[in-house]
Amino acid sequence: MQQQQQGGNRISFGMSYNLGGKADLTMILNGALAGLVAITADPLSPSPVYSVIIGGVAGVIVVFSIIALDKVKIDDPVGAISVHGVCGFFGLMVVPVSNADAAFTSQLFGAAVIFAWVFFSQCCCLGSTKSNGRYSSNRRGRN
Question: What's the pLDDT score for residue 24?
């Protein structure tokens, strides 16, 4: 697992340095996490070299995903959507490249099921807290 982390870590360091002119620690750490998240979709099939490539590509994806979410004003202060959502989806989609038993359609169906489950469960959780009066977006002068 260390190879994927190093791939994501080093590539995201280079990307953040080239795009921002300085090393951004949060981008570097999110790159390391993105490499780990992407490879955990199927950690047994890829070779060590391929796992570094997967981690490196995830490191690039997470940097651009964080920047894109910021531009469209989606609040993700720690990059969790980019790391777990975007790079997790990338990890699911590259499984068939190294595992002959997997198919892109089944991976896409699995991603849709995961998205539906998360969406439904969060609607239930946030809906119950809002109906109990414990969640308010208007607190302390916020619009």
Answer: 80
**How far is Cα of residue 71 from the mean position of the Cα atoms in its chain?**
17
d(CA 140, CA 110): 40
Annotated domain spans of the chain? 2-102, 103-134
pLDDT of residue 28: 85
User: Residue-wise over 92-115: b if at least 16 C-beta within 10 A, else e?
Assistant: bebbbeeeeebeeeebeeebeeee
Residue 1 three-state SS: coil
CA–CA dist 30, 39 (Å, integer): 14
pLDDT beyond 80 at 139? no
CA dihedral 45, 47, 8, 34 (to 10 degrees): 0
Q: How confident is the model at residue 138 (pLDDT cuts 50, 70, 90)?
A: low
**What letter does residue 139 receive in the DSSP assignment?**
G
103: left (phi over 0), alpha (psi -120 to 50) or beta: beta
> Residue 140 pLDDT > 80, yes or no?
no
**How confident is residue 135, by pLDDT bands cut at 50, 70 and 90?**
low
